[in-house]
Design a protein that fits this description.
mainly alpha, flat
């Protein structure tokens, strides 16, 4: 008889336990949702803060560049808040940039083309793409891309490039023409014996082809 009386109590206890567990799950879900929402808001705030800091640094950088340009243009001197030697230091970059454009980039394109042909001939490959994975070929293509990217960056960081028509023109040519060509490298599609001395990037860069007896002999064959 006593056992029979315990059955309803046990059932009631189980029901209460079930309801308590259900309530806990619901409240836990709400708590987790609130926590996730708070975390998302915090992440957004951090992201916005980072964006604001980035924009602030960019504005400060622009202001420094503009004042430096104004100093050089108008001869304002120390009153602009920038030492005159900073302007002189920036002006020293111009010959370096011109050397890159006139000498280094054309020479590198020429070396890259010649190395691909030499490796192709030495390997008795039919097409240049067959030796594209060789360390010398891959290394020079990567170095060519690195050189052009670095040159673009250096010109863009030069405070007076907008006032230098030659630098501005070369910047656009490097960024819009030579860099995409070097990244894709159409030279790889040529047959080794028919490959021209200059790739399209070398032609645009103004490279001067050197005499290549081996290249001429193989073409005649």
């Amino acid at each position: 008889m006593e056992n029979l009386l315990l059955i309803p109590l046990v059932g009631l206890g189980l029901c209460l336990a079930y309801l308590a567990a259900q309530a806990f799950v619901e409240y836990a879900g709400i708590f987790i949702a609130d926590a996730m929402y708070s975390f998302t808001e915090l992440s957004d705030d951090i992201s916005k803060g980072a964006d604001n800091a980035r924009q602030r640094r960019y504005r400060e950088h622009r202001k420094r560049e503009f004042l430096m340009w104004l100093n050089a243009k108008m001869g304002i001197g120390e009153t602009s808040g920038f030492a005159t030697d900073q302007v002189h230091e920036a002006q020293k970059q111009a010959p370096i940039l011109r050397r890159l454009l006139k000498d280094e980039i054309p020479a590198m394109t020429l070396r890259c083309c010649k190395t691909h042909r030499l490796v192709g001939w030495a390997s008795e490959a039919e097409y240049i793409y067959e030796v594209s994975g060789e360390p010398e070929c891959r290394g020079l293509r990567e170095r060519m891309v690195d050189l052009v990217e670095a040159s673009v960056s250096m010109i863009q960081q030069y405070p007076f490039y907008l006032d230098d028509e030659i630098l501005l023109q070369n910047l656009i040519v490097l960024r819009k023409r030579i860099l995409p060509i070097c990244r894709e490298c159409p030279y790889l599609s040529h047959a080794v014996v028919e490959a021209p001395l200059l790739c399209p990037a070398a032609v645009i860069a103004g490279a001067k082809p050197e005499g290549d007896k081996c290249h001429d002999q193989r073409k005649r064959k």
